[in-house]
Amino acid sequence: MTNISVHPQTGGTWQRFWLGIVVALIFAVGIGVRLYDLTDLPLDFHPTRQLHSALIARGMYYQNLETAPDWQRELAVRQWKAEGLIEPQILESLTALTYRLAGGDYLWIPRLYSILFWTLGGVALLLLALDLAGGMGAVIALMFYFLSPYAVQASRAFMPDPMMVMLMIFSFWAATRWLRSMNNNGRGSWGWAVAAGILTGIAMLTKSVAGFFLLFIWMGLVLTGPGLKRAIKSTQVWVIVFLAVLPSIVYYLYGTLVVHLLQGQFSLRFFPQLWKDPAFYLRWLGEVKGVIGFGWLLTALLGSLVVRNRTLRAGLLGWWIGYVIYGMVFAYHISTHDYYTLPLVPAAALGIGSAGEALLARMRSSSRWLQAAAALVLLAGIVFPAYDARTTLKKADYRSEATAWKRIGSQFAPEDGVVGLTSNYGASLEYWGWRSITVWQYAADVSMRELAGQTIDFKSEFTNKTAGNDYFLITNFGELDKQPALKEILAQNYPLIRQEADFWIYDLQHPLNP
């Protein structure tokens, strides 16, 4: 029988009662702070990525919206299709369905879904942490998972990542349940085997990068559980593998061979040359510090090493190893996009919970005053992070952005061709201004292409982008300053026909020097 036992619980009924009260309080505060300012626009966290999903969901909704004008319905669908296919549009489809039920494309609806997914992930994390670290360790793990300021913002975002994280945690938990059900012959419950395989498969389908984490989690659990030889001979293991990989295989075969929409998603992803650059590792560490915090990172790593159960410890360490491999494969993005580190939050939470349990275990024989002080520290750990997260959400109100982009969009006729150097790669203008544009790249995009070995000819790029277009729109003036060649060619060759505080428009059809 696989040795995965429940972490020993201490205290009687009264202690467990108060433990339940604290867990309920964490869930209530965690959900409450995420619901704060629910109806603000999704521009507080990686707006380009959120608007990508928003445009897709709106296109799906408008596709069969008979009350919408024909031009609006057709444009919404075109914008949806132009966004391309990255991963299965599960959250977007669910959102579009709910739009139809709600009678409008309300952007707080996908925010509610992300909050729901993160909350359900918290249930699975609690179940895992109870086994891995015990009661107080589970409380501490939940506090970090729910109340760390970065996690609050990220778990409200219109992105598939909160759903992926939820499914990863459930996959890990189901795998431990299957291993615990094993008898001396190495055969576990078929129900848990199928559940673990399906959850792993759906997690990887939601976002394929989940495979990096789950592969090493499973390796740690299996190698320290039934062992490699027994696993290879196990029919259940092969069923789990089949269920785990089948959805992604079907999806990627369909996307590459049938609809031909996924080929481009594999370009500009792999940058092994960064591995030799010390600055890459410093930038990566900076992203981790922003998501988790350096002190919490060290605590989580130490806590992961002292998990009592060998099999659970191996699974948790597998999560960390998977993150490192994933980061090396996506070297550029892991060091520039903080949400690539979001899947590490549950692992860090479990490690911190394990460390906290080890510390509190030494205090159980201490005086009541010390125990009361520890309780106050835990209470502060709930209140202050929640208040910090709320303050972050309160700092900015983005509702006026919709009006501003509508005004900018009104400067153009529907048939006008527009090239734009704008915020969020034109997504804000497309969503609220109802205008599609040809996006002019950012300086960072040029650097990434050069890092990939591509040669960029500015004049050819400008000619190709502006050909057949009528206007060049500038709203991102900071980015314009980073591209002096673009600034010069526009200023010297094209009339500036509209200049306002928040946008400039150049006329491409009537050059100054024809």
Describe the structure.
The relative contact order is 0.11. The chain is 65% helix and 4% strand. Helix 2 packs across helix 4 and helix 14 packs across helix 17. It contains 24 helices and 5 strands. It has 514 residues and is mostly helical.
Number of helices: 24
Q: Whole-Å distance between the termini?
A: 82 Å
Encode the helix/strand succession as letters. HHHHHHHHHHHHHHHHHHHEHEHHEHHEE
**β-strand number:** 5
Helix content: 55-70%
Helix/strand-derived category reads: mainly alpha
Query: What sort of overall outline do the alpha carbons produce when their principal axes are compared?
Result: globular
**How does the major sheet shape up?**
5 strands, mixed
| Poorly predicted regions | none
The Rg value, from CA coordinates, equals 26 Å
Q: How are the strands of the largest sheet arranged?
A: 2-1-3-5-4
Q: Could you tell me the strand content as a percent range?
A: under 5%
If you average the pLDDT, what whole number results? Answer: 90
